[in-house]
Amino acid sequence: NGIGDKGAHLIASSTHLTALSSLELGYNDISAGGAKALATSSFLSQLSSLSLRGNKIGDVGLQSFASSAHLCNLEELDLGSAEIGDRGLECLASSRSELISLNLEYNNFGADGVRALANSASLDKLTSLRLNGNGVGDEGVQALAESRHLSKLASLNLWDTQVGDQGAQAIASS
């Protein structure tokens, strides 16, 4: 697929999609510019599920979602393999959120980004968190284990996250 930023802009400006609740645009060559168009679209305000997996959204694109006044109903966000770093997670952590499910697998963040998520009161509804394929490490897992805000978390994926015995102990004791 190759919708790209131009296609993202066209979708974002369509008056025919105002009832759309789920949008999957994975692997479509969408960058931060296309992400911003989607995030700022008043026509997509009914979205409860959005997947931009495999696009080059980056921290700037995630910042657009974090500051969006139109994506207030978003409960599921899939940004797997979307070039998200620690700064992007810090933006997400400081946003107002209704997220229940967050997929961040195979990005570019580490313990600092995970710590920001763990300390975020805006993610207190989160029940599913996928962090696999990132440099979470024992420090990141410790932050998750100590979080007061992730008490509803029922599914946590830490596959391939550089977590050792200390991190496993932290999760087991939480």
Output the strand order for the largest sheet.
Answer: 1-2-3-4-5-6
Structural class: alpha/beta
Strands, count: 6
Helix-strand pattern, N to C? HEHEHEHEHEHEH
> Please, how many helices?
7
The Rg value, from CA coordinates, equals 16 Å
Mean pLDDT: 96
* Biggest pleated sheet: 6 strands, parallel
Helix content: 25-40%
Contiguous runs where pLDDT drops below 50 for at least 5 residues: none
Beta fraction:
5-15%
Shape from CA axes? globular
Query: How many angstroms does the end-to-end distance come to?
Result: 42 Å
Summarize this structure briefly.
By secondary structure, the protein is of the alpha/beta class. The chain has helices at 4-12, 32-39, 58-66, 86-93, 111-118, 137-146, 165-173; strands spanning 22-24, 49-51, 76-78, 101-103, 128-130, 155-157.
